[in-house]
Amino acid sequence: METERLKCLIIGSGPAGYTAAIYAGRANLSPVLYSGLQPGGQLTTTTDVENFPGYPQGINGTELMEDLRKQAERFGADIRAGVVTATDLSKSPYRITVDGSKILETETLIIATGATAKYLGLADEQKYAGMGVSACATCDGFFYRKKTVAVVGGGDTACEEAVYLAGLASKVYLIVRKPYLRASKVMQERVMNNEKIEVLFEHNAVGLFGEDGVEGVHLVKRLGEADEERYDLAIDGFFLAIGHKPNSEVFKPYLDTDEVGYILTEPGTPRTKIPGVFAAGDVADPHYRQAITAAASGCQAAIEAERYFSAK
Ligand code: NDP
User: Fold this and answer.
1) Which atom, in ligand 1's list, is nearest to the CA of 156?
2) Which of 16, 140, 223, 232 has its CA 20 to 30 A from that of 312?
3) Is a pLDDT exceeding 70 seen at residue 67?
4) Distance between CA atoms of residues 14 and 291, nearest Å
């Protein structure tokens, strides 16, 4: 298999990966970055990012990631398409296989693989995949203009997706399992003030139905301690927004993770238990999960990588 030797390999192309690439490029580490399954990361599946400092009017997520990529390239980062399929972190240089066809031997490794959308685990989600089920409103919302959709979840993502979909669809149901929304106040208000959105508190989706695509959802509504009501709701699209799973699977044989799969690092740093291997962004952050905190930890990881060489 083709083998290439590197000083600094960055895996992932979200805010953490690109920021690490900007810093590593400026530190002459000749970083190579593999962009993974979703180039640009999760922000490319969101609408406007209003809380990234420096954009008083907000910025489209895809545009922000394009800008970060260009900034990384300006400082010499070599950005490539490819997905990590195997790792060997047992000794330095660390061996990373990409697309099952190429081995990279690297002295430092920055893992910035982010997190992936979760599904409820219903068989119907698979049955109707691409036929009315989606985990990305900005990717698929266009197909539901003037239609009726449901969004599952009560966090910021769910609220953001519901508001986005309300701009396209004629009706949006927000299916929330608790009697309250977990989202930030500002997002809650946007949902509550949008007349196209109807929040169904204490509801769970338990199945979908339809001939050639989603035509409705089976719901269970909690009525007090022991009682419940089951009914069906006609919808054309079913959007999941119930959180994410960290993309750490391929590193788990070598690194410690928490029970969800977030990579454990030395508190306040991106250092893993392996010297020269760093974890930045959402793959190691169950707490903040923001673009700006991911970018900051990407910066820290690149500085750590540089110090790793200077301490040698
Ligand atoms: P969260 O973990 O915050 O919320 C997940 C939501 O999905 C919760 O309401 C949860 O319910 C619900 N849920 C989880 N599992 C199930 C299930 N099996 N069935 C039904 N409902 C379920 O995830 P988000 O993706 O919304 O947000 C992640 C982080 O990113 C947060 O910190 C958020 O603030 C941030 N974020 C910020 C944005 C911004 O600032 N622009 C935009 C999007 C996200 P329950 O409450 O009952 O656990």
Assistant:
1) 26
2) 16
3) yes
4) 8
Residue located nearest, by CA, to atom 4 of ligand 1? 155
**Going by CA atoms, what residue is nearest to atom 30 of ligand 1?**
289
Pick the most confident of 22-36, 47-61, 116-130: 22-36
Cβ of 28 closer than 6 Å to ligand 1, yes or no, is no
Question: Among 26, 15, 144, which residue's Cα sits nearest to residue 75?
Answer: 26
Radius of gyration, alpha carbons of the chain: 21
Write out pLDDT tens, residues 184-221.
999 999 999 999 999 999 999 999 999 999 999 999 99
Give the pairing of strands 237-240 and 197-200: unpaired
Measure the N-to-C terminal CA separation of the chain; round to a whole number of Å: 29
Beta bridge partners of 3: 103
Atom of ligand 1 nearest to the CA of 287: 32
Distance 307 CA to ligand 1 centre (A): 36
CA distances from 185 to 188, 189, 191, 192, 198 (A): 5, 6, 10, 10, 17
